[in-house]
Design a protein that fits this description.
Elements (H helix, E strand, L loop, with lengths): L1 E6 L2 E6 L4 H7 L6 E2 L5 E2 L12 E4 L2 E5 L10 E3 L1 E2 L5
Parallel strand pairs: 1-7, 3-8
Antiparallel strand pairs: 1-2, 3-4, 5-6, 5-7
Length: 85
């Protein structure tokens, strides 16, 4: 079974049971957040111990993409922590 999520307004499909991070990585996205210095971040630890894979899911900020199962219809927004943002 497939799931369809929306990432920054674009549809992305994945496999039921995949984490949001898994869906993003499988679609070719290696990063989806930036630090204050502008450095790209995506999955680092993959087990929820760090905070590199944070994004906003259905309006809730700071969700760890590696821990959150992708659900059909999820609306995902990437995050930035850039000082000028």
């Amino acid at each position: 079974m497939t799931v369809r999520i929306i990432v920054d307004g674009e549809p992305v499909t994945g496999v039921a049971g995949q984490s949001v991070a898994g869906v993003l990585l499988a679609s070719g996205r290696m990063s989806w957040r930036t630090t204050r210095s502008g450095a790209p971040r995506g999955v680092f630890c993959g087990i929820g111990a760090c905070f590199d894979c944070l994004l906003t899911v259905n309006g809730v900020p700071d969700v760890r993409a590696c821990r959150r199962p992708a659900v059909d219809g999820d609306e995902i927004r990437t995050q930035t922590r850039q000082e000028d943002a």
